[in-house]
Amino acid sequence: MKKKTALTKMHIAPSTVCYDAVAARDSNEVGLILAAVRKRNGYSLVTFSELLRHYGVDVSDKGISKWEKGESLT
């Protein structure tokens, strides 16, 4: 059986999806996903920062580290 990921949930009708942004923030869900994807693709913090800059997201390697640790939300 195929393992469901967060992305496969998008195939569910929006009215049936319940997303708790406060719980996601408190558990640092986004930061943990960001760190896992970055590491799985072999990017260092510096390289990932440069990649994001290429797409118009101006964030330093230290900023990404803070996102991943849940120390910063902006």
Write a structural description:
With 74 residues, the chain is an all-alpha fold. The chain has one domain (13-69). The chain contains four helices and no strands. The protein is globular. The chain starts with 20 loop residues before the first helix and ends in a 5-residue tail after the last helix. The mean pLDDT is 83.
Give a brief description.
The chain is mainly alpha-helical and 74 residues long. 50% of the residues lie in helices and 0% in strands. It has one domain (13-69).
State the separation between the terminal residues, measured CA to CA. 38 Å
CA gyration radius, whole angstroms: 14 Å
Total number of strands: 0
Beta fraction of the residues? under 5%
Low-confidence stretches: none
Query: What fraction, in percent, of the residue positions are helical?
Result: 40-55%
| Helix-strand makeup class | mainly alpha
Globally, the shape reads: globular
Total of domains: 1
> What is the count of helical runs?
4
Query: Would you tell me the overall average pLDDT?
Result: 83
Largest sheet: none
Q: What is the string of SSEs from the N terminus onward?
A: HHHH
What are its keywords?
0% strand; single chain; 74 residues; 50% helix; mainly alpha
SSE blueprint:
Elements: H1 21-26, H2 29-40, H3 45-54, H4 61-69
Helix pairs in contact: 2-4, 3-4
